[in-house]
Amino acid sequence: MGWSRDNSRQQTLALQVARPNPTRDDLRAAYERCVRDKENMPFDRALTVPSIALTLKNAARAAILKRGGA
């Protein structure tokens, strides 16, 4: 049986994506892996720059998922 627009149940199913929230330790580990010039970009400053903070969060989430989501 294929997809049917008339099947109301198919329209109500929502994709559930588990996005783990990284801890400060996870962010610190991502910082150690991603930032080369740690003298010019200390950890606390890296978290205040939106683009770098987002990159660190994504790297930390990827590491969490890679090790099994815990």
Explain this structure to me?
The chain has 70 residues and is mainly alpha-helical. Helices cover 56% and strands 0% of the residues. The longest helix has 17 residues, at 50-66. The two termini are 37 Å apart.
**Helix run count:** 4
Order of helices and strands: HHHH
C-alpha end-to-end distance: 37 Å
| Biggest sheet record | none
Gyration radius, rounded: 19 Å
Which word captures the global form? elongated
Assembly type of the chains comes to single chain
Percentage of residues in DSSP E strands: under 5%
Q: Poorly predicted ranges (pLDDT <50, ≥5 residues)?
A: none
Average pLDDT metric: 84
Tell me how many strands there are. Answer: 0
Would you tell me the structural class of the helices and strands? mainly alpha
- Helicity level: 55-70%
Give a quick summary of the entry.
By secondary structure, the protein is an all-alpha fold. It contains four helices and no strands.
Task: Label this structure with key terms.
single chain, 70 residues, mainly alpha, 56% helix, 0% strand, elongated
